[in-house]
Amino acid sequence: MARQNFSYEKRQREIAKKKKKAEKEEKKAARRGDSASSEPDERPSETRTDSPRD
Fold first, then answer.
1. CA 18 to CA 9: how far, in whole Å?
2. Residues 6+ apart with CB under 8 A from 35
């Protein structure tokens, strides 16, 4: 009896999950009206203009 290739099946499931997640992100971006589907820049920048420098 032949053995199943579980690592292949697992990799295929992982690829499917990544694809589904990417499609979901694209839909979210389209709903928001963003043109880019990459990570949003919601983090504050490191160079802030409101804090005084000595």
1. 14
2. 29
Q: Report CA dihedral (41, 45, 50, 54) to the nearest 10 degrees.
A: 180
Identity at 40, one-letter amino acid code? P
Q: What is the pLDDT along the chain (54 residues), one digit of tens a residue?
A: 778 888 999 999 999 999 999 999 999 999 988 655 455 555 555 665 665 665
Report pTM: 0.50
Name the region of 4 (left: φ>0; alpha: ψ -120 to 50; beta: rest): beta
How distant, in Å, are the alpha carbons of 23, 42, 47 from that of 50? 38, 17, 9
